[in-house]
């Protein structure tokens, strides 16, 4: 029984240590409200409505959004730690994002790089999105094993 508990305990530690979040400006998604994306808006969060989940700080635009997040945080956490989904899929690299370039697909939040004439959301949509999602999922696992 002791061996099982020890393995279980170490399994939790290693799983938590593997998650890497894009926390530019000290908050996930540069302080944008993760709940607002599910209303098809990219809204900046307020320092008045913040929470830390899984060691990451989040900002929200309202008390209601903060409460919504707290009821089911896993639903709102961006894919691939908030890094560019397209770059994870195609380059297996962590690339920063434009917080206003996003897609909700299959109930999940995907973020994209959009600068210097390159909008990776457009590139994402031009290709086989399901294939890119699968590739990004696989690459994300490998990236987190290496880090």
- Please list the strands of the largest sheet in the order they lie side by side: 1-2
Shape: globular
The overall pLDDT, averaged over residues, is 89
Uncertain ranges: 1-17
Which features does this protein show?
2 domains; 7 helices; 6 strands; disordered N terminus; two-stranded antiparallel sheet; alpha+beta; 147 residues
Summary, kept brief:
The chain is of the alpha+beta class and 147 residues long. The chain has helices spanning 2-18, 34-37, 63-71, 73-76, 85-91, 120-126, 129-146; strands spanning 46-53, 56-60, 98-105, 108-112, 114-115, 118-119.
Question: Can you describe this structure?
Answer:
By secondary structure, the chain is α+β, with helices and mostly antiparallel strands. The chain is 45% helix and 20% strand. The chain has 7 helices and 6 strands. It has helices spanning 2-18, 34-37, 63-71, 73-76, 85-91, 120-126, 129-146; strands at residues 46-53, 56-60, 98-105, 108-112, 114-115, 118-119. Helix 5 packs across helix 7 (129-146). The longest helix has 18 residues, at 129-146. It is globular, with a radius of gyration of 16 Å. Mean pLDDT is 89; it is low at 1-17.
């Amino acid at each position: 029984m002791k061996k099982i508990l020890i393995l279980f305990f170490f399994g939790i530690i290693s799983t938590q240590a593997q998650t890497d979040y894009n926390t530019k400006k000290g908050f996930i998604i540069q302080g944008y409200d993760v709940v607002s994306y599910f209303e098809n808006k990219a809204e900046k969060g307020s320092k008045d409505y913040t929470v830390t989940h899984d060691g990451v700080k989040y900002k929200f635009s309202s008390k209601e959004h903060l409460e919504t997040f707290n009821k089911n945080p896993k639903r709102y956490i961006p894919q691939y730690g908030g890094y560019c989904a397209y770059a994870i899929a195609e380059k297996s690299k962590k690339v920063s994002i434009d917080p206003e370039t996003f897609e909700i697909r299959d109930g999940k939040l995907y973020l994209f790089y959009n600068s210097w004439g390159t909008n990776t959301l457009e590139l994402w949509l031009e290709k086989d999105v399901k294939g890119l999602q699968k590739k990004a999922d696989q690459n994300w696992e490998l990236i987190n094993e290496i880090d």
